[in-house]
Amino acid sequence: MPAPTLDDLRRHAVARTLFAPTTLAEALERLGFVQADPIRAPARAQDLILRHRVAGYRAGDLERHYATLDVHEDFFVNYGFLAGRWWRLMHPRDRGIAWQPKTRRRAQEVLEFVQARGTAHPREVEAHLGHGTVRNYWGGSSSATTRLLDHLHYRGMLRVARRDNGIRVYAPHAHEARARDAKARRAQVDALVDLVVQVYAPLPARTLSELVRRLRYAVPQHRDEIAAALSRAQERLAHAVVDGLRWYWVPGEDPREVDPAPPRLRFLAPFDPIVWDRRRFEILWGWAYRFEAYTPPARRTLGYYALPVLWGDRVVGWANCSAESGRLRAQVGTLDPRIARERTFREARDAEIARMAAFLDVTPPRGVAAGSP
In what order do the strands lie in the sheet with 33-35? Predict the structure, then answer.
């Protein structure tokens, strides 16, 4: 049968992840993993991702309902939120991570304090134990207590119980033991590879390799299994060569059978599954999107936190949004100025701006009618 075209892969990339809006619990289960980011411009990445996939979603809903959901903050291929069945596959991370004796002793003190309290805010732990500061990854200083909490969380000895004003509040946790035999290890890593593909397919071969190798952070106890898991994935996944590049996707899906997306316009988060792989983005949509939050202002071309603009199944520009004094401000740029003059585009743009304002619970810009999330 003929291989899919780039047009097929574009439609497939959009349709498979932008499913019909559903409940928060169902959306998290279908996505499996939602990347997190602390920048709020105009909302955090996890909220910007979920707003397109959860009916009536408003900024902060994930944080508000987190404690009632089987979802967990942790590091997968990036830091974010995992549905419980995937989170449990990554643990226990009880091998391959060494601690110095002093660090081990301090970590035990922190763990015992949290166990005694049931839940603990980092400020409470610091006030009780006062471990001072340590040099962080960027050359500055960080709280030693916060670093120990992070380490205990990563090892699975603590879990995030909730957030208070964006700050993680921890609770003790003990993961169930898992089988250690070779067959069980292979199955565990293969399932996590399947999650990578579920979230980010269709994937160019190079991206698949890079993401699978990042599983060494998700399951450091199974580092030695990852190279073989990649080889197995390349055998079992659906794949084809399109314009000289090999692509992979979920078996049973057929990019050639995807209908064109309806003409709805959406502002996407920089870490949305559609956007995340910058290499794939440039191949599929023919232009280079850059995340410029950490770029000096004078060198920015799109904006501090530019949101790619998806219209149907084409990414045609970018938007910068902010909420000031209870009112949304939105600036939308297009790659082709002629698009901005089309009536259908302007109507779709204004409808998305209205939805963004409702999602943020602010007033839309003047001239844009109020909408619903």
Answer: 33-35, 79-83, 71-75
Q: Are 155 and 172 in contact (CB under 8 A)?
A: no
Phi and psi at residue 368, in whole multiples of 5°? -115, 125
Which own/partner contact pairs does 285-292 have at CB distance under 8 Å and 24+ positions apart?
285/10, 285/314, 285/315, 287/315, 287/335, 289/315, 289/318
What are the angstrom distances between the C-alpha of 308 and each of 181, 302, 319, 328?
Answer: 45, 10, 6, 17
pLDDT, tens digit, 9 for 90 and up, residues 254-293: 999 999 888 899 999 999 999 999 999 999 999 999 999 9
Hey, is 181 helix, strand or coil? Answer: coil
CB 22 within 8 A of CB 184: no
Domains and CATH numbers, the chain: 101-172 (1.10.10), 182-256 (1.10.10)
For residue 167, what are the contacts with CB-CB under 8 A and spacing of at least 6?
Answer: 121, 122, 123
274 vs 35: CA distance, rounded Å:
12
pTM: 0.93
CA distances from 164 to 64, 161, 212, 247 (A): 10, 10, 33, 42
Q: Are 304 and 293 in contact (CB under 8 A)?
A: yes
* Segment 35-55, tens digit of pLDDT: 999 999 999 999 999 999 999
Cis bond leading into 270, ω under 30°?
no
Does residue 308 have a cis bond before it (omega within 30 degrees)? Answer: no
